[in-house]
């Protein structure tokens, strides 16, 4: 029996060896295909678009006046509340000079006027008497002599004296009124320049006043942005402007309006100067409740401006990530290939760009970045079905069959061993 088992084992080994040497070759699997890279795309379409313009500007006063005296005199104490940082109203008393000298001058001028008027009345009586005498005598005199007889020169002199005295009286009144210096408009006192008790000459500066009804923000914007702007001075209504500052609490802002465009460029000659009007810049006329959320503009502040033009054009808006070097974009064609396309950029912003030409509605523009790019390479938009592209030779089928053959040999060996043991 042992001999028989050995013979069977030898035959099994020989059969397995023959199989290994004569098994059919592993069939070649068809080359497998790797999926195309996936990219993000946006589908483009023309629409009425306008860019959001951004820039920085400095706050300046609409009107800033140095208030001065018109007459000389000693400065009286300033009225209560007339100090730097305080608000004043139009015609409010800002300062006054000692009035005694001017009151006396007015009284003297009024007395002189009364004297002149009395002299005029007396002369008119003399003229009536002279006319009566001339009529009584009935003499015909040349016109020049007749005027002398009728005291016409004396009457004119008296009338002129009255006019001169009246003018002096009016000047004295005006000088007295000018001892009180009043605010020319609603404003804020910026600085007091002299102290009370000072002896001042005419036209001495007293204080600086800033108008509070309006401030300006002088923006610097690229000249190419001017085509989008409307101005109050030209169009009756300017482009709306939203102003913000890092110094203000989050979410707080002020609104303004583009008023005009200055004819000169800024100092370096690259940017256009745009004037933005802000009404009630110090928030003096808002309610107490609204004042807490309405920041005040300060002269000299630097603020950030966001302009929303009302003028639009039929343009395509794209994210800035879609723009490639050389003003190109990558288009994903209908058959799934990359096409490099030059486009006409109308406006380039921080986050978006507006394209005027080079694209057709419905085309898909790639916004993803790619490590290597070739025109015509196969790609797949995210969400599309997988599209096979690159072919690779795969030997996994042959390896699998070899492994299966090895497993068959091992099974045969195990069977032969088992049979021998049973014997």
Summarize this, please?
By secondary structure, the protein is of the alpha+beta class. It is built from 7 helices and 26 strands. The strands form 8 sheets. It has a 6-stranded antiparallel beta barrel with strand order 5-14-17-16-15-18.
Structural description of this entry:
The structure is a single chain. A hairpin with a 5-residue loop joins strand 20 and strand 21. The model is unreliable at 388-423 (pLDDT under 50). Helix 1 (2-22) runs antiparallel to helix 7 (396-422) and helix 2 (100-137) packs antiparallel against helix 4 (152-177). It is elongated and about 195 Å long. With 423 residues, the chain is α+β, with helices and mostly antiparallel strands. It has helices at residues 2-22, 100-137, 143-149, 152-177, 232-235, 288-291, 396-422, and strands spanning 32-35, 38-39, 41-43, 47-49, 53-61, 64-68, 73-74, 87-88, 93-96, 180-182, 187-192, 199-200, 205-211, 214-222, 240-244, 254-265, 271-279, 302-307, 313-319, 328-332, 338-342, 344-348, 352-357, 364-366, 380-381, 388-392.
